[in-house]
Amino acid sequence: MSVPTFHNLSFYSDPSANVQRYKDLIKSFESIYHDTPDFISRSPGRVNLIGDHIDYSYFSALPMAIETDVIGAVKVLPGSNEVVLHNTDPAFARESFVLPAEGQVVEIDKSKFSWASYFKCGYIVAQKYIQEKGNHQQPFNGLLILFDGTVPTGGGLSSSAAFCVATTMAVLRANGVTQISKEDLTRITVVSEHYVGVNNGGMDQCASIYGERDKALLIQFQPKLEGQAFAFPVVKPNDMVFLITNSLVQANKKETAPVNYNLRAVEVAVAAEVLAKQFNLKLLQDSNLGTGQLRGFMETYYLQEKGVPLWNNDIDQGIIQLNGVLALLEKIFDSEEKKSGHFYTTENTAKVLGLSTEEFQEKFLSQFPVRYQYLKLYQRSKHVYSESLRVLETLKLLREQTDGARFLSEFGRLMNESQESLSSQFETSREELATLCQVALSHGSYGSRITGAGFGGSVVHLLTTDKVETVQRELREKYYKKQFPNITEEEIQAAMTVSKSGLGTCVLEKTDGSWDF
Ligand code: ATP
Ligand code: GLA
C-alpha cells in the first residue's frame, strides 16, 4: 500500500476547518521565498491508547494517528545545493545548509542542537533510501521549505515523528520518488531520531504513516513491522471518545535521554540478557543496541525450555505465555535485594553476565550514553511483560466484540493498570500527570493514562461524550488554573482536545497548476 497523494483536503474529517491554515501556509511561503511551492508533505501525530515503552522490546502497541499534524510546503530547486527551512512557529528560526558532495550523507552537528537536526534526521534516511535503491543519477535537489505544525512539541503526541516523517516524504518526493509503500517509509523512518541520539522504538513513525480515519491501529513489530487499522465497539447511547489533556510540562526526550528514555532502553536490553543468562540461552542480538531484547528472551525461552513457539494469532495462548513469564520474573529476581532496585550496579550486572566492566560498557553503554547508579531490571521487565499482557487483553475484548458498556469498564481498567505500572515500575509519570488522571477519574473517566514517552507530556482519558464537559470543567479548575495561575482560557482549551483519529502521511499536489482548497 503506497503513501497516498491528494489534490484537496478531503482527508480531514472537517476539510473546511483547515482551508485557512493551508491558504496561510501558501501565502507565507510566497512572501518569504518570492516563489510558489510545488507540493505539500504532511504527517500526523499520534496518541497511544495502551502499550507504552514496549515497542523497543518488540511487543505490539495500540495507538491511533490524530488529526493534528506537521505540514511542509516544498519548492524543488534542481541545480541548487542549498536547503532553506522556515517555520510558521517563531520558536523555530530560519535554518539553512549546503548539501554535501554526491555520495556523502548530510551531517548533524552534535554541538549545536536545533530543529534543523531533526530535519536532517528525516533527510538522512531519505537520502540513504534513494542511494540504496541505486536509481539516483543526479545530485540531490536544493529545497525551499516552510513548515507548520499543530502537534505540540514535547507533548507526548509525537511531534518529532510527525516532523521527521513529513521531512522524509518531502525529500523523497523532491528527488523523484513519487511512490513509496507505507512499509518502506516506516522501515526507513523508525531509526531517523537515532541520529539525534534518541534510541526510540518504531511505534510513533508507524502510527503516523499507517493512520486511518475513525480507526485505531495495532502496531506489530514481529514477525514484521506493520500497522493494522481496527474499529472500536459502538457505545450507546453516548459515543466513546478519547480526551487528550496536555500537562503543559514539556518532556524534552532528547535532552533528558541519558537518565530517562535511553536509560529505559538500556535497562530492558540488560534485563533480557540477565534473564537469558539464568537459562544459558543465547539471544538474537537484534535490539536497537545490538543486544537481546525482552520479546526475544521470551521467544527463546518458550522454544528451548518448553518446546513451543510464541503465540501468533492465538491471543489466549499469548495471555498464558505472558503470565508465565511474569511468574518467571518472580523466581529469577528471587530476593528482596534483586527486586529492590538497589542491586544492579554496573559491576554487579557485569558479574551476573560474566562480562568485565569494560565489556559491559562496550556492549550496552557505548552507543547511547546513559547515567545511572542502579539498573532497575525487575521493575522494568515487569512493566514490559505486564503492559504487553494488557495489550493482548484489549485485543481479546475487541476480538470478542464485547458490548459497549463492558468494553468501557474493562478497557478503562486496563488503562488504569497501565498508568499504575508506568508510574511505579517504569517511573515515567510525575505528579502533574497523576493529578490529571485523578481529577478525570473522579469525574467520569473510565481510564486515564500517560500517553507516549511520559516524563511530562499528555494524558489520554477514556470517556463518553456526556462526560466530556464535566471532566474538562474540573480539570480547568483543579489542574490548569491551579498549576498555571496566569493561564488564559485559550491556552486551557488548546491543552484539552477530544481526539479524532486521522489519516496517516500523505502528499498534496496542485490540480492543473493551482491549489484546490
Ligand atoms: P513524544 O515523542 O514524547 O511524543 P515529541 O515528539 O512531541 O514528544 P520530542 O521528541 O522532544 O517531542 O521532539 C520535539 C522536537 O521535534 C522539537 O524540539 C523540534 O526539533 C522537532 N519538531 C517537532 N515539531 C516540529 C515543527 N512543527 N517544526 C519544527 N520542528 C519540530
Ligand atoms: C516515545 C518513543 C516511542 C515509544 C514511546 C513510549 O514516543 O518515540 O518509540 O517508545 O515513547 O511508548
TrEMBL record:
<dbReference type="InterPro" id="IPR006206">
    <property type="entry name" value="Mevalonate/galactokinase"/>
</dbReference>
<dbReference type="InterPro" id="IPR006203">
    <property type="entry name" value="GHMP_knse_ATP-bd_CS"/>
</dbReference>
<dbReference type="InterPro" id="IPR006204">
    <property type="entry name" value="GHMP_kinase_N_dom"/>
</dbReference>
<dbReference type="Pfam" id="PF08544">
    <property type="entry name" value="GHMP_kinases_C"/>
</dbReference>
<comment type="pathway">
    <text>Carbohydrate metabolism; galactose metabolism.</text>
</comment>
<keyword id="KW-0547">Nucleotide-binding</keyword>
<dbReference type="InterPro" id="IPR019741">
    <property type="entry name" value="Galactokinase_CS"/>
</dbReference>
<dbReference type="InterPro" id="IPR036554">
    <property type="entry name" value="GHMP_kinase_C_sf"/>
</dbReference>
<dbReference type="InterPro" id="IPR013750">
    <property type="entry name" value="GHMP_kinase_C_dom"/>
</dbReference>
<protein>
    <recommendedName>
        <fullName>Galactokinase</fullName>
        <ecNumber>2.7.1.6</ecNumber>
    </recommendedName>
</protein>
<dbReference type="InterPro" id="IPR020568">
    <property type="entry name" value="Ribosomal_Su5_D2-typ_SF"/>
</dbReference>
<dbReference type="Pfam" id="PF10509">
    <property type="entry name" value="GalKase_gal_bdg"/>
</dbReference>
<feature type="domain" description="Galactokinase N-terminal">
    <location>
        <begin position="27"/>
        <end position="75"/>
    </location>
</feature>
<feature type="domain" description="GHMP kinase N-terminal">
    <location>
        <begin position="127"/>
        <end position="211"/>
    </location>
</feature>
<dbReference type="InterPro" id="IPR019539">
    <property type="entry name" value="GalKase_N"/>
</dbReference>
<keyword id="KW-0418">Kinase</keyword>
<dbReference type="InterPro" id="IPR000705">
    <property type="entry name" value="Galactokinase"/>
</dbReference>
<feature type="domain" description="GHMP kinase C-terminal">
    <location>
        <begin position="406"/>
        <end position="481"/>
    </location>
</feature>
<comment type="similarity">
    <text>Belongs to the GHMP kinase family. GalK subfamily.</text>
</comment>
<keyword id="KW-0808">Transferase</keyword>
<keyword id="KW-0067">ATP-binding</keyword>
<dbReference type="InterPro" id="IPR014721">
    <property type="entry name" value="Ribsml_uS5_D2-typ_fold_subgr"/>
</dbReference>
<dbReference type="Pfam" id="PF00288">
    <property type="entry name" value="GHMP_kinases_N"/>
</dbReference>
